[in-house]
Amino acid sequence: SPEETILAVEDLEKHFGGIVALDGVDLSVGSGITGLIGPNGAGKTTFFNCLTGFYTPEVGSITFQGADITGSRPAAVAKSGMVRTFQIPRELSEMTVLENLLLAPPDQSGERLSGAWLRGDAFVDDELSVRERALEMAEFFELDHLLDEPAGNLSGGQRKLLELARALLTDPEMVLLDEPLAGVNPTLEEKILDRIHDLEAQGYSFLFVEHDIEMIMNHCDRVIVLHRGEVLTTGTPEEVQTDDRVIEAYLGEV
Ligand code: ATP
Q1: Residue 250: which H helix or E strand, with range?
Q2: How far is it, in rounded angstroms, from Cα 68 to Cα 177?
Q3: What are phi and psi of 4, to 5 degrees?
Q4: Closest Cα to atom 2, ligand 1: which residue?
Q5: From edge to edge, which strands make up the β-sheet containing 174-178?
Q6: Which of 35, 97, 114, 233 is the most exposed, having the fewest neighbouring CB atoms within 10 Å of its CB?
Q7: For atom 10 of ligand 1, which residue has the closest CA?
Q8: How much is the ipTM here?
């Protein structure tokens, strides 16, 4: 049900020198599709990086599906069932779509995690090889006709589909998306949203940062508003959109 808490964050703080990027974030995220919004500099990217183990918070805790993952490395977080999408970096643009699907994402230092990232433990069904899972994802995201195409030749939307396919390879519980529709044409925008809703129906949950308020209104079950490193409010899209504090926070940026 949409009320079931899968991610709980308590009093999370992240500092960069004198800058307090996260100043005691408390929130819980249920299953379904949750949007994370907030004015520029609110701390959205920092929050994602703390959740997925790319940054270590100074204070606070992150509990995912009942397990404390605070300070866990990215590979361990991914293994626990929470993954984020990564932009296809320039150095991979000459590799084909299939080759990209067979690669693990980078770790904190920018190094690629070994193939064991996928092969190890429970990441992929025992009977299903990494390659089979990659082909399955390519088909689901309608990238199968592009498998031999260099990733650099893909359109913005096809790239986003590839990023999603890579994130889904490990069969996670929750996927974190950073602006899944940025630079995507309307046709592929619809395809991406359809796939996200298909996956939601299958039981996957999503947390995404998106600046497009229409997308938030039309596709999120819940919305969390960050402001100056703290949660300003949470609620349904309707509640959040009409909240005076939210309107004020955004107007304060102009
Ligand atoms: P935007 O919507 O503009 O991407 P955001 O909500 O993602 O913003 P963050 O990028 O998390 O916000 O930034 C939060 C605060 O932390 C800002 O003041 C930012 O300048 C600062 N900050 C983020 N990352 C770093 C870093 N690596 N070093 C120093 N300061 C940082």
Answers
A1: helix 244-251
A2: 22
A3: -65, 125
A4: 40
A5: 82-84, 174-178, 205-209, 33-37, 222-227, 230-235
A6: 114
A7: 45
A8: 0.96
* Residue in 140, 154, 147, 52 with CA at minimum distance from that of residue 101: 147
> E strands of 75-121, at which residues?
82-84
CA gap 210, 194 in Å, rounded: 16
Give the integer Cα–Cα distance in Å for 173 and 80.
Answer: 8
Pocket of ligand 1 (CB under 6 A): 16, 19, 21, 38, 40-46
For ligand 1, atom 22, which residue shows the shortest CA distance?
Answer: 21
Ligand 1 centroid distance, CA of 130 (Å) = 35
Closest CA to ligand 1's atom 30: 16
**pTM of the predicted model, to two decimals?**
0.89
- The C-alpha angle 237, 218, 51, rounded to 5 degrees, equals 65
How do residues 2-33 score in pLDDT, each as one tens digit?
468 999 999 999 999 999 999 999 999 999 99
Which residues does residue 208 pair with via DSSP β-bridges, in sequence order?
Answer: 35, 177
